[in-house]
From TrEMBL:
The protein, known as: Argininosuccinate synthase
BP-aspect Gene Ontology terms: argininosuccinate metabolic process; L-arginine biosynthetic process; urea cycle
Localisation per UniProt entry: Cytoplasm
Entries under PROSITE patterns matching the protein: ARGININOSUCCIN_SYN_1, ARGININOSUCCIN_SYN_2
Residues covered by the Arginosuccinate synthase-like N-terminal domain: 4-165
Gene Ontology molecular function: argininosuccinate synthase activity; ATP binding
Domain Arginosuccinate synthase C-terminal positions: 174-388
GO cellular component: cytoplasm
Positions of L-aspartate binding: T119, N123, D124
Superkingdom as given in the UniProt entry: Bacteria
Subunit annotation: Homotetramer.
Provenance organism: Micromonospora sediminicola
Binding site for L-citrulline: Y87, N123, R127, S175, E259, Y271
Binding site for ATP: A8, Y9, S10, G11, G12, L13, D14, T15, S16, G117
Amino acid sequence: MTERVVLAYSGGLDTSVAIPYLAEQAGAEVIAVAVDLGQGGEDMTVVRQRALDCGAVEAEVIDARDEFAAGYCVPAIRANALYMDRYPLVSALSRPLIVRHLVAAARRHGGTIVSHGCTGKGNDQVRFEVGLAALAPDLRIVAPARDLAWTRDKAIAFAEEKGLPIDVTARSPYSIDQNLWGRAVETGFLEDIWTAPVEDLYAYTSDPALERDPDEVVITFDGGVPVAIDGETVTPYQAILDLNRRAGAHGVGRLDMVEDRLVGIKSREVYEAPGAVALITAHQELEAVTVERDLARFKRGVDQRWGELVYDGLWFSPLRRALDAFVDDAQRHVTGEVRLTLHGGRAVVTGRRSEASLYDFGLATYDTGDTFDQSLAKGFVRLWGLPSGLAAARDARLGEVSW
């Protein structure tokens, strides 16, 4: 019986070349699976036809835009997920969803092998393969670009030899991955970390230095989920799409960073994530108003660990599932509105309001109407500092070096 390979198909050179290569080397039929995550670019029907023209026996395009927004981007918002305090997990969030659809396709089509186009230097090989091991440990994995050191030159030569219907002459200086949540750009001259990015590598954001009037936007959250923009009810997908457009027009969400990859190397990455940055900025501010101090302090550690787990390809880990349960409970009162001004590359919070607010004007004000009993403060301060005072007195008694 002929084996079947389910290939994560992007429509680009590497995965297009993989179709006839896998058919030859594995003697298998190839089923190409392209997942629409709101990445834009080519028409997905064109991508599907290219897979068939390259030799796939079947090709599927799966519209997962709403699923990605609600099931993956929303949890990232609620966890304020920023790897290294900056990167909103553009690629990392998409991989577990693609893995789910690859496994489902393998079951539908009787596939026994799953293939991807990742190299051995990147994080995505881990994300794909650890996810596959969690969901379908019976499926074998083939990674031509990694396992056979498949270079671009080799891929171009193979495509020309086979007469594949792809433009092998169009050479982009960058490697690009994009979806609804953002856009990642690397390689080429960016590998010189002293060289500044050029304007033409950006697509989701306009130059923040351009003159334009500020844009004011009000985002409504319910339990940490964005549910309205300027009073108009939206789905998570619509919220991200709208803010990509509006925040992107002001250059919000540009990142240029040297990142710690899971495989142990440092890599220079340029990101654009206008909607993600605007939404997380607004969500963090609403949490500041509605989440109690000790819960907020603890959640910051949870948020960091959640982002690291997703970045490291451990979406399907028991720890992430457990952290989600914590985040769910912590979001019970994160309901209200945040006003942002989008301008000059920044999303600046200018207002916040919530029925669940813990902000008490009477306690906070220094003017007439102050309800804070300042007579209680003196005793509080003395008791709060008592342990430190006792330790200092002990050190002095023992002749130890003090502060």
